[in-house]
Amino acid sequence: MIVIGASTGGTEALRELGYENIAMDIVLDYASDAQSNTFVLNELTFREAGMADLTLSLSVGNLNISEVDSVMENPFAITINNAQLTYSDHSLMQRILEATARDEQTTVDQLKQEALQELDMTFAQGIQQGDQVSIQALDALKAFIMNPNKLSIVMAPAQPLPVAMFLGLSDPAQALQQLGI
């Protein structure tokens, strides 16, 4: 457990959100298979019960963590087999929205409406083309903005994707499709 209290730097922003102390648990569970060159991160969770949980799980190929030097020689050979990132809110998002609304002298509802408009513009091309992945992603993000509880992003490409491919993804609709989100 990591405890962040009054003597730790950066606490002013947390205090402004109404947090005095933070006690964070970190969960790490992974496995590596040298024969198949696969690394599986079953769970990496950062949990603060009064704030939020952030959990990552993923499976990568062409990665033998016992041979780190060879990985560094060609990091672009690594492939992503699948991944999931889940954010579970316990109070953080509402506090951020309220603080931002105070700072900008507006309401939480107005902030949410502005965020929804930004999302519509970001996903406009995919929506116009009838891309189902873009439509589903937009719906999930809008639901989260209106009721920030839990949001999961699951990446399940049809085939493992080389890490190098991530460098060329700039269009959100194209990225969602290629990543199998």
Please describe what this structure looks like.
With 181 residues, the protein is α+β, with helices and mostly antiparallel strands. Helices cover 38% and strands 30% of the residues. The protein contains 7 helices and 7 strands. Strands 1, 2, 3, 4, 5, 6 and 7 form a 7-stranded antiparallel sheet that branches. Helix 3 crosses helix 4 and helix 4 runs antiparallel to helix 6.
In short:
The protein is α+β, with helices and mostly antiparallel strands and 181 residues long.
What is this structure's SSE topology?
Blueprint: E1 2-4, H1 11-16, E2 22-33, E3 38-48, E4 52-61, H2 68-73, E5 79-89, H3 92-104, H4 108-122, H5 124-128, H6 132-146, E6 150-155, E7 161-162, H7 172-179
Antiparallel strand pairs: 1-2, 2-3, 3-4, 4-5, 5-6, 5-7
Helix pairs in contact: 3-4, 4-6
Descriptive terms for the model:
181 residues, alpha+beta, 7 strands, flat
Quickly count the helices: 7
> What is the global morphology?
flat
Q: Could you say which structural class the secondary elements and strand pairing correspond to?
A: alpha+beta
Pattern of helices and strands: EHEEEHEHHHHEEH
Low-pLDDT runs: none
| Total beta strand runs | 7
How much β-strand is present in the residues?
25-35%
Biggest beta sheet summary: 7 strands, antiparallel
| Cα-atom radius of gyration | 20 Å
- In terms of quaternary structure, the protein is single chain
